[in-house]
């Protein structure tokens, strides 16, 4: 069977987290650069499809193609690192320290941002014919997204901040399930299906993903979006990143570890061999 049960795929995820935590800085930066760039292309693809059809759910259905591609290539999103490295740390026997976790998160964030920003510059150039004409209809849509999802939250004050944080939590709850989905099957088709479902859900619900936003908002600014860099950082990227961290850790990493960690599996085996008494 191609399906791998949780008691086994959690062990695979822990091992993957250990390998990523011990990777060289160069490798982490390159993997995360490619992941940020590919996810950015997928984001503009989804926005383009939604704009052309006028049916946002179509863009949401197709967006996961980028996520599946980057994970099948072994690339790293910081939102995935939020799950895999804590799992490796919690296991206790993989030699992964808190400093390894922090280092991995920082390197993945930097690589993701540079990759996404590179695509932002390229697509902004395409949407304006080398900055010689007004933005195309897709460019105008991106600029409006940037404004509505920064200034729009800002106008609601603390309520807006809580909302954007929770959208970040919900987002990486789903995205981290997609990350784990890459481990639940030995077949490519099985991996893709397991990854596709939660990623489609997060995009359709317009939850906030820090790496997608590394593309959307810089692009919107390059295209004349009516908000500032400070608005982007304070009223989107920073609270979203924090929400993504808690969503992946609390709703995916911790439950899976508590239920299916290798030590739990070993304990269950030992308990099953204990004699029954009356």
UniProtKB/TrEMBL annotation:
The keyword Membrane applies. It comes from the Bacteria. Keywords: Membrane, Transmembrane, Transmembrane helix. It is a multi-pass membrane protein. It is found in: Membrane. Coiled coil: none annotated. The chain crosses the membrane at residues 28-49, 61-89, 101-127, 164-184, 196-218, 238-260. GO terms for molecular function: formate transmembrane transporter activity. GO terms for cellular component: plasma membrane. Belongs to the FNT transporter (TC 1.A.16) family. This is Formate/nitrite transporter family protein. It comes from Palleronia caenipelagi.
């Amino acid at each position: 069977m191609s399906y791998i049960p949780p008691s086994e795929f959690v062990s695979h995820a822990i091992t993957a987290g250990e390998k990523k935590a011990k990777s060289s800085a160069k490798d982490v930066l390159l993997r995360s650069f490619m992941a940020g760039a590919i996810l950015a292309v997928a984001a503009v693809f989804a926005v383009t499809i939604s704009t052309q059809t006028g049916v946002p759910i179509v863009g949401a259905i197709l967006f996961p193609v980028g996520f599946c591609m980057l994970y099948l290539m072994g690339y790293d999103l910081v939102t995935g690192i939020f799950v895999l490295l804590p799992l490796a740390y919690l296991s206790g026997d993989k030699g992964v320290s808190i400093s390894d976790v922090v280092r991995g998160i920082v390197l993945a964030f930097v690589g993701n941002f540079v990759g996404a920003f590179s695509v932002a510059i390229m697509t902004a150039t395409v949407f304006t014919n080398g900055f010689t004409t007004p933005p195309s209809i897709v460019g105008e849509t991106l600029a409006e997204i940037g404004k509505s999802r920064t200034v729009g939250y800002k106008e609601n004050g603390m309520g807006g901040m809580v909302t954007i944080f929770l959208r970040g939590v919900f987002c990486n709850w789903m995205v981290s399930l997609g990350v784990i989905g890459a481990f639940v099957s030995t077949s490519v088709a099985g991996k893709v299906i397991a990854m596709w479902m939660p990623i489609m859900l997060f995009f359709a619900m317009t939850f906030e993903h820090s790496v997608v936003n590394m593309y959307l908002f810089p692009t919107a600014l390059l295209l004349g979006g009516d908000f500032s860099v400070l608005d982007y950082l304070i009223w989107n990227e920073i609270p979203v990143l924090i929400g993504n961290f808690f969503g992946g850790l609390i709703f995916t990493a911790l439950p899976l570890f508590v239920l299916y960690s290798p030590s739990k599996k070993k304990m269950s085996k030992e308990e099953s061999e204990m004699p029954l008494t009356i």
